[in-house]
Amino acid sequence: MIAGYLDSQPGLWARPGVPTGPIEVAPQYGFWSIVDRLNPTCRIALCPYFPTYSRAGPRVENFTASIATAGQNGWGCPNSEQPPYCADDALRTNAAGSYATFAAFMSYAGALQPIFLIVDQFNEFGKPDEGWNAQTDDDIEPANLWGFTALQDVQQQIAHYRTRSP
User: Fold this and answer.
1) Where are the domains of the chain?
2) Which candidate, 12, 44, 4, places its Cα nearest to that of 28?
3) pLDDT along the chain (166 residues), means of 10
4) How far apart are CA 157 and CA 105, in angstroms?
5) Which distant-in-sequence residues (6+ apart) come within 8 Å of 78 by Cβ?
6) Count of CA atoms in the C-beta half-sphere (13 A) of 131
7) Which residues contact 3 (CB under 8 A, 6 or more apart)?
């Protein structure tokens, strides 16, 4: 079964408590997560989110990497400046233009070596509920809107991942 945001559902985790890294989903549930939160730059107590994974025997069975993920309350926070980002949002690129969120997900993928690595993409055919902008878009588009595209970054990250895979 697939689900999303298992990072926010500690009742499904194999080991309860405050996570310090990727979270294993308890095997009796059999869930694969198709999107989790991970903000590598967040420094507030409310967002030490980590992506989840499931096991198939001794191996990690699945892991999902995303380009951008919303925080606990979506993208828009009450009383926030425009654009309305929440402090725990994992935006598409950092101030230097790097796809830092995706790189952080792929770093965990390299360490976990899942049987199935899912590269998540959502909202590619319409506006997200909270509105659209370049930082909250998770498309892996081939368009060159910002110089270095998400498609190029995904290709490079996958190539690097394959060099680390047995």
Assistant:
1) 2-164
2) 12
3) 90 90 93 87 73 94 90 71 72 82 93 93 58 69 65 90 83
4) 10
5) none
6) 9
7) 9, 31, 32, 33, 34
The token pair at 92 is 């598409």
Instruction: For residues 55 and 44, give the distance between their C-alpha atoms in angstroms, rounded to a whole number.
Output: 30
Burial (CB count <10 Å: 0-12, 13-18, 19+), residue 127: exposed
* Residue 131: CB atoms within 10 Å: 11
The identity of residue 69, as a single letter, is T
Task: Report CA-CA distances (Å) from 87 to 72, 98, 106, 141.
Answer: 10, 18, 22, 26
Q: How far is CA 55 from the centre of its chain?
A: 18
For the chain, the C-alpha Rg in angstroms (whole number) is 16
Contact by Cβ (8 Å): 40, 92 = no
Strand partners, 53: 24, 63
